What does this fold into?
Amino acid sequence: MNQSISAFEAADAQAFRDHSTYPAHRTEAPLFTADSVELRVARSKDDLESAFKLLHDAYVDCGYMEPQQSGMRISFYNALPTTSTLIALHEGVIVGTVSLIRENQIGFPAERVFDLTEIRRVGGAVAEISALAIHARYRKRGSHILFALMKFMFHHARDLFGTRHLVIAVHPTHFPLYESLGFKRLPDTVDSYDFVNGAPAVGGHVDLATVADFIFRRYAHLSGRKNLYDYFYRQRLTRLSCAAETFTADGAPVMSPRLVKYFFAEQTSILRDMGEHVRGVLRSMYRAHGYAGELLW
It folds into this structure.
């Protein structure tokens, strides 16, 4: 990567590319600051549904999926108790979302196409960043949302769940943003990734135990909002929901039995269509929390 490219330039480039896929008649977003972005884990039906709809619209517009009758982008990974959906809100409206898929018996979406053996050999828990989307109205000014979500993601993964390694699978044009934050590219490029409707993908990895050194060397000498070391490692998340702060790594599912049924049986056919292996894993994960009698599958 050209070392003159900053994280903000990479973010602006991605925002320009993404925004160019949206119809020009959509109105501009109001101005906002980093302090006006509220962050929390989506746990209610409204929060989850809004996040899934935002993701659906972004993916459809970028060609990463076909339109769904539900108007939501949901996969069986969202049904796992080990998946967290993080959201950013501005004036009560969800303007960004990203998901963290933690270790589970099924594996990660990226493992379909990328070999994580060397990462696992280092030791430490692995998680995948997935389903990142910024509301179309906010993409031209989306760096505050994007970096707030990434900071929240790092906090959520490292401090609450003891995650050491984060992996991603993204379109090649999006990778410079992650590279500017310390992600290293995995060896292979995939020409057609079925998880995003056959779009090309590259893999990335960041070691949370060492990335602070990279961010310090790259950004600590800069001033103001360009000093991402100060932002990621010294500043507090001022609008972090108390519910998110107290969300602990106790293995308790985010979704209630009613929500699991609503999203994966009523709004989609995910429960009905999943294979026996995945169904068995899901049953075993929820049985420990008293869900077996609640779910009709």
Summary: The domain at 7-287 is CATH 3.40.630.30 (Aminopeptidase).
